[in-house]
User: Which sequence fits this backbone?
């Protein structure tokens, strides 16, 4: 991976302890707890038996894949659309799981590729407008040593902003084939887990 020259490196552990990373993790935990509470309430009130649930199911079956594709492209370009939640909802309402996983993974990868290409062409002044100064400084120091590992760790963790690192990959001119591989495969894994969980959740809600 091509990198710049940084006077001071930092450890991966130090980066994961950065305030913005800890904030992302805290928000992720809060949202996860909130989602579990909502799921419990849906089961208690037997929402799966209501006309609204069936209307939503029809909507997702008709338009789910197209919507997920557009939403994940935007989510990959740092628009906060909550793509994991949308993918889970689509799986919950019966969208074909294999198609859903592939479409979501491709969409998110395309979104991050847009970031990559913009950073590649426009350089650090552009990236500095998209990544907060403290985030950019933290990532910059760690990139020489942990670039690929860091990108994969963020890609495998739903609540960490991997889309920010796609700017860094473009800035340091990472090989495009390598970038596409380490963008697509972690998201493929993440979306597979999400879809698997949502399918079982749907069966539980309908039981």
Assistant:
């Amino acid at each position: 991976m091509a990198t710049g020259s940084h006077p001071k490196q930092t450890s991966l552990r130090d980066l994961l302890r950065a305030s913005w990373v800890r904030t992302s993790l805290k928000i992720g935990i809060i949202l996860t707890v909130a989602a579990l509470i909502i799921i419990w309430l849906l089961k208690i009130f037997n929402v799966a038996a209501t006309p609204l649930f069936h209307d939503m199911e029809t909507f997702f079956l008709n338009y789910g894949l197209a919507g997920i594709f557009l939403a994940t492209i935007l989510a990959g370009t740092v628009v906060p659309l909550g793509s994991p939640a949308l993918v889970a909802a689509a799986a919950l309402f019966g969208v074909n799981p294999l198609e859903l996983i592939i479409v979501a993974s491709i969409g998110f990868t395309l979104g991050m590729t847009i970031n990559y290409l913009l950073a590649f062409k426009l350089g650090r002044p552009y990236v500095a407008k998209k990544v907060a100064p403290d985030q950019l400084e933290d990532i910059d120091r760690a990139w020489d040593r942990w670039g690929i590992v860091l990108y994969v760790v963020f890609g495998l963790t739903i609540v960490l902003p991997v889309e920010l690192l796609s700017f860094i990959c473009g800035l340091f001119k990472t090989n495009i084939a390598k970038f596409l591989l380490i963008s697509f495969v972690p998201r493929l894994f993440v979306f597979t887990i999400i879809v698997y969980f949502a399918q079982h959740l749907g069966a539980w809600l309908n039981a």
Observations:
- The chain is about 80% helix and 0% strand.
- The mean pLDDT is 83.
- The chain has one domain: 12-30+53-206.
